[in-house]
Amino acid sequence: MKKLLLLVALAFGISWNGQAQQKEITPAEIGVQYGKKVDKSNAITVDKLEKSLEKSPKFTGKVTGKVIQVCTKKGCFLTLQRTGEKEPITVRFTDYSYFVPADLVGKNVIVDGYAKVKDTTNEITFVADGVLVVK
């Protein structure tokens, strides 16, 4: 009897875990939010973020930019375009608590969180609590 109960519990646990991982991601359309709620107010451009990070090693707030890449496995990161030949800004999501769809590429978004510059590579990384599709 104990073995049967254990087997049923194990089967339930496996099926529940599989359903949790297959959660659908909402397609990218204007106004769709991922993660925590983000509003449009006080968002700065990627260029202004770069200038801010020249003065201070960390920035907290909202940044707007064009998405040029999304992780193809499950949408666990995106990159924002920078001007010229500079490396794009890598945006990861707080605690991987949400994912974004691949059709976000080419869209403009606002990300809310914090950014910092890696000392060795001068690469900008952003950790976002939320993403809002704006265009």
- Derived structural class: alpha+beta
Beta content comes to 25-35%
Overall mean confidence score, pLDDT: 84
Helix content: 10-25%
- Element-by-element helix/strand order: HEEHEEEEE
For the largest beta-sheet, the strand count, sense and barrel status come to:
5 strands, mixed, barrel
| Strand adjacency order, main sheet | 3-4-5-7-6
Distance between the termini: 59 Å
Poorly predicted parts: 4-22
Number of helices: 2
Radius of gyration: 19 Å
The coarse overall form would be: globular
| Tally of DSSP β-strands | 7
Describe what you observe in this structure.
Helix content is about 20%, strand content about 35%. β4 (about 75-80) and β5 (about 90-95) form a beta hairpin. It has about 140 residues and is α+β, with helices and mostly antiparallel strands. The longest helix is centred in the first third of the chain and has 20 residues, at about 1-20. It is globular, with a radius of gyration of 19 Å. A five-stranded mixed β-barrel has the order 3-4-5-7-6. The protein has helices spanning about 1-20, 45-55, and strands spanning about 35, 45, 60-70, 75-80, 90-95, 110-115, 125-135.
Short synopsis of the structure:
By secondary structure, the chain is an alpha+beta fold.
Name its key features.
135 residues; 22% helix; globular; 7 strands; alpha+beta
Indicate the topology.
Blueprint: H1 2-21, E1 33-35, E2 44-45, H2 46-55, E3 58-70, E4 77-80, E5 89-93, E6 108-117, E7 124-133
Parallel strand pairs: 2-3, 5-7
Antiparallel strand pairs: 1-7, 3-4, 3-6, 4-5, 6-7
